[in-house]
């Protein structure tokens, strides 16, 4: 088993730091339905952590708990060494966790650049008046933020669509724009909800490369949910496996792959 | 100006020109590159410093005089600096096509025995690591973009900016060595080695000296009055001689600014932003742009279409004449002015040609209709004829003497000779030194007196005194009936149709001509969309009955126009196959500069070629394809052999009677 107090070093030599977020005995109910049942795991600084499981296992609910959007009825979420209280939506946004969505949620009528700029809202502090006359601090702020956004545009290789309205883009590129917007927020944790869903092989390869490069370049802690097992096993450092709201496995891709409970959940098991 | 026999002022190398520009044009922009959405600028003074730092860094890494340094990347200032820095330390830069597959790259790197490579990014680093074991002399690699490379073993891998930093830090140690190496460079030292793409056989390394490059740059700059104020956009492959001449030779000679686009996909946007004054593009780029304009016009409103057609017709009538300064009636001039205000001006601006003073096209024959379209708009587009072996220039069209079927008069300092079999020979100061490690080919191409065989058949047009190229000498053949067979001529006529991307005509030693055709996915796809024709793949669209019908219409039109030409009436296309895949350089069917390799194509599609002549109506075929990453796959399809109507002429009898 991995040492859970100190950091560890991955196979390819990356140093993974201490625990950033810890889920302690989380239970989430919707009325009588138990979506998540007594799950505990941690997320470490700089790692790529995957959550996998069959349909309806509670993965997206888990992601919403991590982001602070859902409040579990039982259990505690510890983030950066503090127990996280129940938050209002704007507090959720300010805590430094950015995400992409399973079904793309961009502003279709706006250009790629403007969409990515919205990711910088947290960094814009000038008042309404200054913003509207665009003088002094507002101008300086926008210039700085634009510079940051341009680095991300360069990083994700979307320069050629900088000024294109998002609605005109193909699906694979929209996904990339969504990732760009999430990165623009300079998140300490990046949540990706099925980043490869509906992509062809080439787009998947590109996206995988970007996820790895983001982690490599910015050291961003990444949590991803993904159906494509090949992608998950290749990308992630550690994997949590869920089934019917319960955690049935947790460990490196190899450990998980050889875990009998996981094999049963994915391949089915005969009950005779 | 200096006399051409000997460069005055000691300007006998590119580094010497750099040193001059660093003083004379210190604060003028030398390079621009769009990065992070903004055009970043380096002046000539900055450039000299950057190149010096890199050159010192190369010395620090142990580059010896005479070493070959491979340079693999898209057009970025860093790679232009790399070439000049390599020259500064007495090494020879060898630019390599960055889209080469690992195999092709292995051949070039092994052939020149490169010890170092300066590459762009992870993709190129991976490619070279893959082939590294086979390269005996290869030692170290420098990369520009660090992304994704952090975890690589950095014993033999260096980041560009770090090499420069180390060079700056070691200035005291190496500056003497650098100065002495730079001083040794003269007109006879090698400036660059460029590999020809080769429509047949393996690439050959063409060694060009400083004399070749500087003389060619100087005389061609004078021919078109290029000044230090030109703006060019560098977007053509750096491994191609043209880019070397335009972006290094002429740029360093004149001291003008080279602008590098943000990426291949943003090239057209960047073209508009820069508005170059001096522009070069192969015919294909002009074709693509024209196709795009036509596609967009199809989607425009009725009124706009009417306006466009009306004024374009007028432009075709008087535009070229106005451009050449001939006398045109006042009313026509006024109408042209109005057209310029409404159509031509905005269109030129959209295309990025608003400021073009001198534009050239070469590499392949350009369709006359395409050529005239741009000239009609008032763009001074001209043709030149050149080769890597000539440091580009053999002939050029002077301003005011532009004909679409000729390639112009001798470039200054070039002598021309037409051999008895029609092959064109030339001799000039730009003539290459040799093919590297290939004395047989050198001897068979260049005779002891310095005459070089072009491999093209042509003649001097009596009316104009300009050179006219018919075809590749080896492609011009005879049909079974003894008439001349000039495939390129027919192919170019076919390729003018926006729907046809590529055509390969067969007919050598045969009774009738037949063709393979590639549809243009952009144009045909757009048409399919407007006509509610669904398709899932290129292959499906290419095989669609209505597409075949359209292409048949085009072929028959070409046949009718060929019938009017007594020399070529027998080259009418009797039947054709629309291929199920695009001809591709990755599959070896075309060169990296997109010239068709007839030999490869007729071997690879032997079954299809057979079907064209054995009376089959359709044929099932399987073709191997190579993906970008070098993996192989195969596609299969049943293709129809479509017969096309030909116009009966009396020409064959005439020839037979002679």
Describe the 3D structure.
- The complex is a heterodimer of chains A (272) and B (658).
- With 272 residues, chain A is α/β, with parallel strands linked by helices.
- Helix content of chain A is 36%, strand content 25%.
- Chain A is built from ten helices and twelve strands.
- In chain A, helix 3 packs parallel to helix 6 (171-184).
- Chain A starts with 7 loop residues before the first strand and ends in a 5-residue tail after the last helix.
- With 658 residues, chain B is of the alpha/beta class.
- Helix content of chain B is 40%, strand content 22%.
- Chain B has 22 helices and 29 strands.
- In chain B, helix 1 (14-24) runs antiparallel to helix 2.
- The longest helix of chain B is centred in the middle third of the chain and has 22 residues, at 302-323.
- Chain B is globular.
- The N and C termini of chain B lie far apart (55 Å).
- Mean pLDDT of chain B is 90; it is low at 1-7 and 651-658.
Based on helices, strands and strand pairing, what is the structural class of chain A?
alpha/beta
Q: Percent helix among the residues of chain B?
A: 25-40%
Q: Biggest sheet of chain A, open or closed, and with what strands and sense?
A: 6 strands, mixed
Shape of chain A: globular
State the secondary-structure class of chain B. alpha/beta
